[in-house]
Design goal:
alpha+beta; 18% strand; 2 helices; single chain; Aspartate Aminotransferase, domain 1; globular
């Protein structure tokens, strides 16, 4: 299990990471979860399948970053 946060300058990182979680789960192909660590909202990638490959991890990262891109687009007035 790996905990991580998406970080960018400015704004509420807890709210940003909650939004990333919601959007990533809605996108569907990967599942991530969350935890509160030292009063901060964190994302969790838990890969327990013994058949998981490096590509599975890369896919999860790609989906999280795609969610970030969608959030940026919607904040910029794109939808």
């Amino acid at each position: 299990m790996e905990c991580f946060r998406y970080v960018e300058n400015g704004g509420n990182l807890d709210l940003l990471n909650r939004s990333i979680l919601e959007r990533t789960v809605r996108r569907g192909p990967v599942e991530i979860s969350n935890a509160i660590i030292h009063d901060r909202f964190a994302l969790i990638a838990c890969i327990v399948n013994h058949r998981s490959k490096e590509d599975d991890v890369r896919s999860m990262i790609s989906e999280v970053l795609a969610s970030v891109d969608e959030l940026r687009y919607s904040r910029a007035g794109g939808g």
